Structure formats: C-alpha cells, structure tokens
Amino acid sequence: MIPPNKRYLYLISAMTLLLGVCFVVSLLVGSVMLTPQRLLSGLFHEVDMMVQLVFWEIRLPRALLGVCVGFSLGLTGAVMQGYMRNPLADPGVLGITSGAAMGAVITFYTGLANAFELALPLGGVLGGLLILCMVVMMAGRSASVQTLILAGIAFSTLAGAIISLVLNFSPNPHAVLDIVFWLLGSLKDRSINNLYLALPLMVPGWAMLLYCSRALRALTLGEDTAASMGFSMKQVRYLVIVGSALAVGPAIAVTGSIGFVGLVVPHLIRPLVAGDPGRLLWLSGLAGAVLLSVSDIVVRLISLGQELKLGVITSLIGAPFFFFLLFKMRREVV
Amino acid sequence: MLLQVSAFLIKLQFLILCVLCCCICSVSAKPLRIISMDPATDTLVLQLADLDRIVAVRERTQDPEVSLQWEKALQLITLRNEMAEEVYRLQPDLVFFGPWSNRATRNLLKRLQVPALRLQTPKNWEDVYANIADVGNALGEEERAAKMSASMRRRLSAIEKRLRGQPLKRGLFYIGRGHTYGKNSKAHFVMESAGVVNIAAEKGIVGLGMMSIEEVLMSAPDMIIFSDYKKDVPTLSRNVLDHPVFPHIANRVILTEVPSNKINMTDASLVDCVELLAKTLYPHLFQDFPTAMNNYDTSE
Q1: For residue B122, is pLDDT > 90?
Q2: What is the third-level CATH fold of B34-122?
Q3: Which of A180, A247, B121, B161 is most buried by a 10 A CB count?
Q4: Are B270 and B262 in contact (CB under 8 A)?
Q5: pLDDT recorded at residue B145
Q6: What is the pLDDT of residues A22-41, one digit of tens each?
Q7: What would be the CATH architecture of the domain defined by B156-281?
Q8: Which among A54, A188, A191 is the nearest to B218, CB-wise?
Q9: What CATH number should be reported for the domain whose range is A61-323?
C-alpha cells in the first residue's frame, strides 16, 4: 500500500508528465501539417520565417492558453464543488462563465477594450464576480442542489440575453454572429497577447483558490467544525468568490465560454485522492489542462472543412457525464 | 350595305389602333414607384434610374461605407427591415431584391401581385452584365445599362492587355472570423481579372470558406486583401485580422484593403476594385491608373 502523500506525489508527477506530452503534441498539430524536423529546423533558420511565425505566434500561444484556461476551469470546478459541498457546482452551471463572457463582450463592444489593454480580462473578472455574487446571494451558501442550479441557470440566461442585446446594438451587423463564438469558445488564432492579458489576473486567482485547500478539507466536517478549527468562513468565502472570478474571468474573456471542464474533471479525479477536496485542487487543475489540451488537439485533427469549436468537444464529453451524474443522484435518492 | 361595311371597317381600325396604343403605352410605361431592398441593388438602381422614380432603399445604403450612392439615398425613404407591410404601404410598382433577401417578404409581395425582380450573386463577369441588363430592362433604362456594361468591358480588356504574358502573383481575400472566398465568388473573379491567383480557390474552396492564419501564412501569398468594412468598430470576428503575425509579414507580403462600398456591389465599382488591385500588385504596369488601395494598417 502506497502512503497517501507518496501516492499524491506520484499522481501529480504523472499528470504533469501527461500534460507535458499533450503540450508537445499540441505544438506539433495544426491546420497545416509540419513535420517535427521541419518545425525544428525552421525554428533555428532565419530563412523559414513563416514556420517561425506559425510556431511562436500561433501554436505556442494556443498550447499555453489551452493549459492555462484548462487549469483555471479544472481548479475552479474543484474549489466550487468543495466549498459548496455540491457535486454539480462548476463555473458554467453557476453562471461564472456566462457572467465573464457578458463582462468581456460589454467591455469589447463599448470600445473600453481599446481604451486600455487590461479592460477585456478585467471585464471578464467583473462579469463573473457579479454573477457569482448574485447566485450566492440568491441561493445562499448551503442551498440545495436544485436552488443553486436554478439560480445559476437564471443568471446564466440573463447574462446570455445581455450578450445578445449588446451584440445586436453593435453598428456592425455581422457582430451578431459573434454570439456563436462566445457560446462555443475556441482557442483558434489566439495570439501571445491574449496570454499576456489573461495570465497576470489568472495567477493570483489560482493562488487564492489553492490557498483554500486546507479550509476545504475542514469544510467536509461542516462549517461549524471548520470554524472551530480556526478557519475564518468569511475569508474562505471571499477567497473562493474572488479567486474563481479572477481565474475564470480572463480565461473566458480570451477564449469564449467553454463549458463542462470544471464539472467533469473533479469527478474524474476525486476517486484517485479518496475524496480529499484539498488534494483534489492541484490534480483537478492539471487534469483540466490535459482535458482542454486534448480537446483542442481533437478539434484540429477532425477536418470538416472548418475547425470545430472547442466548446462542442467539451460539451460532447460533458453532457453525457452530466446525465450520468443525474442518474447517479436519482439512484441515491431512491 | 357598303356603308355598313365601311363603318364596320372604320370601327375595326379604331379598335385595332386603340389596342395598339394601349400596348405601346404599357410597354413604354416605366415604373415610377421603385423600391430596392438590398444595398447592392440599391446602388445599381440609383445609378440607372432617375431619383424621382425611386421611393425607398435600404437604410444601410445611406452609409458611405456601404454604398457610393449614399448621398442620393439620403434623399429617399429608407427601410430598416425587409418587412412586407413596410414595403406594401409605399405602393411600389417595382421591387428589387438582393440574393439574401427575406423569403417570407418576397412570397407575400408576390401574393399581393407586386412586380419584383431578384438579383443573384454573380459568379463571373457575365453574371454581373446580366444583372445590370436585367435591372436596366426592368427600369426601362436599357441604354444606360448597356453603356455601363460596355464601359466595364472596355476597362477590363485594357487591364487584361497589360497583364498578358506577365508572371501572375498569388493572393487571397481574408475577412472576419478567418473567412475567405474561393471559386464562384465575386472576390475570385475580381482577383482573377487583376492578375491574382486565388489561393483559396487553389485549395478547393468554392464560395465562402475558412482558412486559419496558419494556413494563410504557409500558403506563401504575395498579397492578402482585407475589407475595410467597419474596421474601427470592435468585433470579435475582426480580431483575427488584428493578429500580431500580420505586422511581422508586412515587409514580405502586400497587405491591402479593398473598399467595401465597391467590392460588395454588382456594377462598375467591381472594375474599380480590379484596377486598384492590379495597380497595387503590379505598380510598374499600371502607373497611369487611379490611386492605389489603402495599405492595411499594421500598427498594433
């Protein structure tokens, strides 16, 4: 029997290794087939400028964004499920994703994003924060699954309607089509600038969420017990809400809404850590990054004339999993 | 008896004369309450018909970025939507529809027996000439239409002569969301006439298709053509065109903008685009031609 600490380290190492493999494959796969030899030789020869551009300006930012956004979604999902002690809590179901998309779209279409560069990710953070605060206020922290989901759906719908309204008011009639982009999310044709914008806000968000690991472990014994163990529930709530908004908001602002990663990943990882919500965080983050990177590779490999949206793949994985969870819950109730 | 026969013949002659007069009148009667429902048809109609015969055009036609005839459009009633009731209350005697017009409106106006003509998206120059001729015939302005087409043919033939024997360069149209135009599109035959081999068509794209930035870079284009439509209005779709790779390749690839109020039309503006493209790509051959196109703004 491997001791839990050692097992945890093995798991972290294995997941990191897997993520490394996905990252390398993501660099090798693209809409144009470039052999590893050509990619490598192109990187070190000035003559093959286009290969250099493809690598540094297109594939590398895309792979890095996939890792960062996936990590954000996986980590936030694990924290939300741990904090709310609710298996259906995730950034998408609770409306953070829609709120972030709403904030980003408002910032973008009002021209604020052109006024100063951080406006776009900040819009995402504020939108996500606003919706999450409203959901928590409406449903309450120890709300039932139904109340929480209902509040999340209501605010997601509201955020979706506001997105459509803002896009309808755009002076460019083609902007309405952008709704599809936001609803399905994509990493296609992103640049390193997107990463520079999102990362400075995402990193403090990750730090805040990871800091909660011990408190989340204590919370499994109930709020009163956790408080008696010296954890300030007010501080934990603040860290979870602001941390989630900081982690997910900028991610969604640059990629659009990517659903289900935060819901599915913690469920897949939980059995590996024997249900420990503290240990779940790092692993969920890494697994989220793996899932999103793999989905992005699949999106590029499936050729249908035009690239599939990333949200399509994550939803194809996530929706059946959601049904599985529902059936499982129904069985438990019976 | 003779008197009766001659009276009958006179009556018959009068009747025939009346019928003939009616026929002539109805043939020569030009529509006087014209409505056009698409910026491209609006622009063509505004060039071929006198303004006092046109009742309404689309609201977007008043935008200089959409139509070169925007000043004329400002003097007319404009239609924001394509609703049949909006059109019918203006009692038109001829309605022009564009290729992407609302089917329900078309069907309703047809049931109300409002004469209508729907133009198709041109796939080649012959389609453009056919559109111009159709609109000219419907308006009763055949001569103006024929003049427009003849002038276009003349200008295109002059460009073709200068390009003859020249090694052709390669390029593509690149618009929002990474879309591009392949075969059977306006952009394709405009590029072809300007001596540009369309990379999108080479890749087998027909009509509107998609190419990622990666594919665009690796296809080694000599020229990338963007649209200047609403370029200052932030849209997510335009974000693709603001990707930092484009400034990097600006010294190797010609990045240029085509005026949207010309390339989206179905009239002589398309030949303007051909001239502008040809002059931008082969400046030594077309020094005496009008000003070249705007360079795409590569400032970040």
Answers
A1: yes
A2: Rossmann fold (3.40.50)
A3: A247
A4: yes
A5: 95
A6: 999 999 998 888 888 888 88
A7: 3-Layer(aba) Sandwich (3.40)
A8: A54
A9: 1.10.3470.10
